[in-house]
Design brief:
Chain lengths: ~110, ~110
């Protein structure tokens, strides 16, 4: 079975803090994705990566950066957390076949 | 720009009923369409993937169909159970793009 794990299920941070969300997949997938999910807005793509050290902006990249130094790990970085970044963050991965697999999500609260 | 719509936003049915969830998309040049299930506070679980060359996929009590010409996909759930209660999302991506465009989901409640 494909497994996508995320470093935390729940996280509380203060405004202005630098926040790291980590995602790891164990199936040698080339493509990895970070989404955020908000009520009424659905899932929105923040960034994705199609190979090590490769990244591409999604629909809402502002305020975020990413890092992919190893194939299995994709990190989302909030350089200076703000309250409007309070959200559910979901990581996903897929290989060349198009089916995406999601992690359990991280509920981030910025106070 | 691809847009994906799911109607209704919420649906409540009695246990045992067969039901259909709807998904429509604006750009018929899709590469594949995927149905997911999401339980409250959890991540998404992939249910079925239909590639553009396929018309339908089946898994157990679930059957998903794809009609590109009309811009529609349906998820049929047979003999619904309370454990089927969840939010169901569909997502489409287009050839040449890695991005999935998601609908906002249909929240299904199956009453015992």
């Amino acid at each position: 079975d494909v497994k996508v794990t995320q470093s935390s299920r729940y996280l509380v941070k203060r405004t202005g803090e630098k926040v790291f969300l980590e995602c790891v997949q164990d199936m040698d997938h080339e493509n990895m994705f970070w989404y955020r999910q908000d009520p009424g807005l659905g899932l929105r793509l923040i960034y994705f990566s199609y190979d090590v050290k490769m990244k591409e902006k999604g629909d809402i990249p502002e305020g975020y950066s990413v890092s992919r130094e190893k194939k299995e790990r994709f990190s989302l970085i909030l350089e200076s957390a703000s309250t409007n970044q309070t959200s559910m963050y979901l990581c996903a991965s897929r290989k060349t076949v198009p089916e995406q697999y999601f992690g359990p999500g991280t509920r981030l609260t910025v106070t | 720009k691809q847009e994906v719509t799911q109607i209704p936003a919420a649906l409540s049915v009695p246990e045992g009923e067969n039901l259909v969830l709807n998904c429509s998309f604006t750009d018929s040049a899709i590469y594949n369409l995927q149905w997911f299930r999401q339980d409250p506070g959890k991540g998404l679980t992939s249910l079925l993937l239909i590639q553009s060359s396929q018309r339908e996929q089946t898994s157990g009590r679930l059957n998903a169909s794809l009609d590109k010409s009309s811009g529609r996909s349906t998820l049929y759930i047979a003999a619904s159970q309370p454990g089927d209660s969840a939010t169901y999302l569909c997502a489409a991506n287009q050839g040449g793009s890695e991005k999935l465009v998601f609908g906002k989901g249909t929240k299904l409640t199956v009453n015992p």
